[in-house]
From TrEMBL, chain A:
It comes from Eruca vesicaria subsp. sativa. InterPro entries: ABI (IPR028457). Residues 276-286 have a biased composition (Basic and acidic residues). Residues 181-300 are annotated as: Disordered. This is Protein ABIL2. Residues 203-214, 244-258 have a biased composition (Polar residues). The lineage of its organism: Eukaryota, Viridiplantae, Streptophyta, Embryophyta, Tracheophyta. Residues 183-197 have a biased composition (Pro residues).
From TrEMBL, chain B:
GO terms for cellular component: cytoskeleton; SCAR complex. GO terms for biological process: actin filament organization; cell motility; regulation of actin polymerization or depolymerization. InterPro entries: BRICK1. Signal peptide: none annotated. One of its GO terms (molecular function) is protein-containing complex binding. It is found in: Cytoplasm, Cytoskeleton. Residues 46-80 form a coiled coil. Keywords: Coiled coil, Cytoplasm, Cytoskeleton. Belongs to the BRK1 family. This is Protein BRICK 1.
């Protein structure tokens, strides 16, 4: 048989390519022998059939046929075993190669994923640095009228140190006072706090600057706290007190006619305050009668009102009003 | 006596022939059994080889897709080098 000859091929090969080439040639030769084995078996069967029918010595033909069948079966088993071993080895080798390639691809994917995560992290950190977190600071009013945010304390200190001289300090104080008086409070404080805290903030601001100008803040606060009339509007404490003090007439019949004249700064205030004031004036005649029992204070108030200058209307008026 | 001796020899020959026939049958049964075993081995080998090749083909398909995806990602990254700019 040709398969036996192929099995004795010289196996020489210095490197892997030659060995693999020889193995592939052996595999192809084995496959070719398996293909030829079918025709050989068919030809052997025909030969033994003819010899059995033609020859008289059937026993020897049968014995030869038996030996040939056994050898052919063993040879077929050997060929099939060799071919299947080769095929299994080849498939296992390819499976190992595919597994190794999968491992490499998984490694590449993991590296790529790590790069992507790193890029995402870096981009996220960059974007997070761009975002400005909201910071709320106090507002400081400068004499030039500009509003400076209190976040920069160094600038504030430098601004404060620049007011070392007394004249500049007085100028700054007057500017702040005019700013507080002239600027409408709801515009500044409406979006920040509701009405009850606004009253507190305004009082605190008034307190801080009136303490500098030697005013009496404690007395004012005490009087406002004692007064029974509490309105939710701004500066309602002083407005609530004013009818009791300001509307005190020299004669009882002129009380209602004098009341609008005693507020030169009223056009800057809201009409609701005025209406509330008038309502309070109408509803409380008894309090007015009690207020008439203080003629000396009303005289002082009238003198102050007559002697006040037009430019300092609000200061003197509020000073006297706050004293009451 | 000759008839009796001829009958005995015939019986012996028939017995020998029957014995040879049973031996031939046994041999054929052995050969057929081994051929069946060989056939079963071939069938089993075919099934295992087919399953191995199927799994290998599946792995190769999956690997091919993953490689295509990696190739697209790498081509996209190389097409946009600004993505790697720090």
């Amino acid at each position: 048989m040709s398969a036996a000859a192929t099995m004795h091929m010289p196996r020489e090969g210095s490197n892997y390519d030659e060995i693999s080439m020889q193995q592939s040639m052996l595999f192809s030769n084995n496959l070719q022998d398996l293909k030829n084995l079918r025709t050989q078996l068919y030809s052997a069967a025909e030969y033994f059939e003819l010899s059995y029918t033609n020859d008289g010595d059937t026993q020897s033909v049968v014995e030869t046929l038996k030996d040939y069948a056994i050898k052919a079966l063993v040879n077929t088993v050997d060929h099939l075993g060799s071919v299947t071993y080769k095929v299994n080895e080849f498939v296992d080798e390819k499976v190992d190669q595919v597994t190794e390639t999968e491992l490499r691809v998984a490694c590449i994917e993991q590296r790529l994923r790590m790069c992507q995560e790193y890029m995402d992290h870096e981009g996220r950190s960059q974007q997070s640095l761009v975002i400005n977190t909201p910071k709320f600071h106090k507002r400081y009013i400068l004499p030039s009228g500009e509003i400076k945010m209190g976040g920069n304390l160094g600038k504030l200190k430098s601004v404060e140190s620049s007011f070392g001289e007394e004249a500049e300090w007085n100028q700054f104080r007057d500017a702040v006072r005019t700013t507080i008086r002239e600027t409408p409070p709801p515009l500044l404080r409406k979006p920040v706090l509701p009405s009850p805290p606004q009253r507190k903030t305004q009082r605190s601001a008034t307190f801080s600057f009136s303490s500098i100008s030697n005013m009496a803040p404690k007395k004012e606060q005490d009087k406002r706290a004692v007064s029974p009339h509490r309105f939710p509007l701004l500066r309602s404490g002083s407005v609530a007190i004013r009818p009791t003090s300001v509307s005190r007439p020299t004669t009882p019949s002129k009380s209602r006619t004098i009341t609008p004249k005693r507020y030169p700064s009223e056009p800057r205030r809201s009409a609701s305050v005025r209406a509330a004031f008038e309502k309070e004036a109408q509803k409380e005649p008894e309090q007015q009668q009690q207020q008439q029992q203080q003629p000396s204070k009303s005289k002082r108030l009238l003198k102050a009102l007559l002697s006040r200058r037009k430019t300092k209307k609000d200061e003197t008026l509020y000073t006297y009003l706050d004293e009451y | 006596m000759a008839k009796a001796g001829g009958g005995i020899t015939n019986a012996v020959n028939v017995g020998i022939a029957v014995q040879a026939d049973w031996e031939n049958r046994e041999f054929i049964s052995h050969i057929s059994l081994n051929v069946r075993r060989l056939f079963e081995f071939l069938v089993q080998f075919e099934s295992t080889t087919k399953s191995k090749l199927a799994s290998l083909n599946e792995k190769l398909d999956l690997l091919e897709r993953r490689l295509e995806m990696l190739e697209v990602q790498v081509s996209t990254a190389t097409a946009n080098p600004s993505l790697f700019a720090t």
